[in-house]
Design a protein that fits this description.
single chain
């Protein structure tokens, strides 16, 4: 029959072993979590760069669209005048 001291000893071994396993698992999980966070940080930085590039391209198109619209208007007026002169002849 087990005495109280033997039972306490085995309980101590079981609890210590369980805590050691959980400590190792927690350490591994923490390492994976840190790697995940660093990956997310890199992805976020790349997404920010892409957003800035798209914004710069949109600004460029916006700046070039205004002169193109004026040029198109002048071209339409010139075409209309040329058609009108052809009809008069």
């Amino acid at each position: 029959m087990l005495s109280m001291e033997d039972t306490a000893f085995w309980l101590l071994i079981v609890v210590s072993s369980t805590l050691a396993v959980f400590l190792v698992l927690a350490s591994i999980a923490l390492i994976f979590f840190i790697k995940l966070l660093s990956s997310l940080r890199r992805i976020s930085a790349k997404a920010e760069n892409v957003a800035e590039s798209v914004e710069a391209a949109a600004d460029t198109f916006e700046r070039s669209a205004k002169p193109m619209a004026v040029l198109k208007l002048v071209s339409n007026i010139a075409d209309s005048v040329a058609k009108f002169r052809k009809k008069e002849k």
